[in-house]
Amino acid sequence: MPGEWVAWRDPAVEWAAFDAVLIRSTWDYHEHVDEFVAWAGHVDTVSELYNPATVVRWNAHKGYLLDLEANKVQVVPTSVVERTRPETLSNVADRQGWRDVVLKPSVSAGAKGTGRYRVDDPSAERALRAILETSDALVQPYLSEIETGGETSMVVIDGSLTHAVSKVPGAGDFRVQPHHGGAERVTEPTPAEVDLAEQVLDAVSTFGSVLYARIDCVTVEGRATLMELEVIEPALYLAVAPTRVTDRLVTCLAERAAAPR
Fold it and tell me: Strand runs (DSSP E) across 97-193, as ranges?
């Protein structure tokens, strides 16, 4: 059967008719996360979902960073404030010794709902309360290295690092996404960044096998530090990747789909 683009929320789609389903552009999943996770679980029972439902469920909540940290991966320091157990930002910041922080929803995409705040700014507490109305919240220290060095995104296909992109924020911002003024260019990852990617992949293997992944990191005090691991619907920068990368993704998907279940 040839490839076909379909919408994950289309009730007319017969998912069992596909040998494999590749998640690529479900940009709205974070707005319907419970429905999306349930959909992934269903598809994974009637077809082959990539990445698998176990990984989707785990990666959908940014608290996965704490799991990776427990597996000895160097991650951006993160505190999760649970919606069912709210606390003030000042308490979190005092406990961690942070004065300049980034707040983000535990489920989001494209930096939606993400903001930078001084802890003593009254708007910071309001922002945290607003996030907690609908989800858990992540509190992280603001890293000035984002402004000076930007982020590196490393793309992995079938366990191999294929290419990397450097992303820098626009003037006066800390968000690197193009719709926030950020810029991107192909780059060569440093040995420390490659080593981090290998550590992340090794840790993720305990949660499930991934066909593709994007590993976003920043260098802090000389150490490659994980910011986010994207294994649900990441931009893989295939337009700037060597041709063989797209070929590798298609070939690996076809091989996995053809393998006995």
Answer: 100-105, 115-118, 137-141, 151-157, 160-168, 183-187
pLDDT digits (tens, 9 = 90+) for 112-162: 778 999 999 999 999 999 999 999 999 999 998 888 888 999 999 999 999
Tell me how far CA of residue 64 lies from CA of 67, 106, 166, 227, in angstroms.
5, 10, 23, 11
Looking at residue 95, which CATH number applies to its domain? Answer: 3.30.1490.20
Amino acid identity of residue 29, one-letter, is Y
Instruction: pLDDT band for 178, please (50, 70, 90 cuts).
Output: low
Q: 199-229 burial string, b = 16+ CB within 10 Å, else e? A: bbbebbeebbebbbbbbbbbbbeeebbbbbb
* Cα distances (angstroms) measured from residue 80 to each of 102, 103, 137: 12, 10, 6
CA torsion, ordered 111, 114, 117, 121, to nearest 10 deg: 150
Half-sphere exposure of 97 (CA within 13 A, CB side): 1
**Rounded CA separation 197/154 (Å):** 7
Taking only the tens place, the pLDDT of each residue in 179-217 is 666 668 889 999 999 999 999 999 999 888 899 999 999
Cα–Cα distance, 127 to 231 (Å, whole number): 27
Last residue of a domain, one of 141, 156, 182: 141
In a domain, 28, yes or no: no
Per the structure, the complete domain to which residue 100 belongs is given by 79-141
Q: Which of these three, 122, 141, 160, is where a domain ends?
A: 141
- Predicted model pTM: 0.91
